[in-house]
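Input record (one chain):
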Amino acid sequence: MKIEEENKALVREAFEQVWNLRHFEKIPEFYSQEYIADYPQMGGHREGHDGIKELVERAWSACADYNEELHELIAEGEYVAARLTISGTHRGDVDGFAATGKRFETEEILMLKVQEGKIVWQRGVIDLRPWLHQ
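The corresponding structure, as predicted from the sequence alone:
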């Protein structure tokens, strides 16, 4: 299997196991301890296994039915680009957005870097308009 296909499979499985199913014990299978997540809209970056866990916990505290659906993965060497839809019912306050109780869907585009079979870096941009228009 080409490295690009391996990297896409890793990203796909990480999103399902960690983000959608909240299997925090599997974080070390997918993410490097040196992992850095950079989300300028969400207050900068998080680092390491605790950083990824914090991001997932924040998402789930805002939406108990949180889900990420991957639509496209494009890989080139150690980089993977992803387009996905985030959905859920906004029941908890997060990042200055008060809970509305309304269902939403929004898009995210992100880049990930994979080295030695682990995600070491990701940078994402989330379309916040659906939350702002609630």
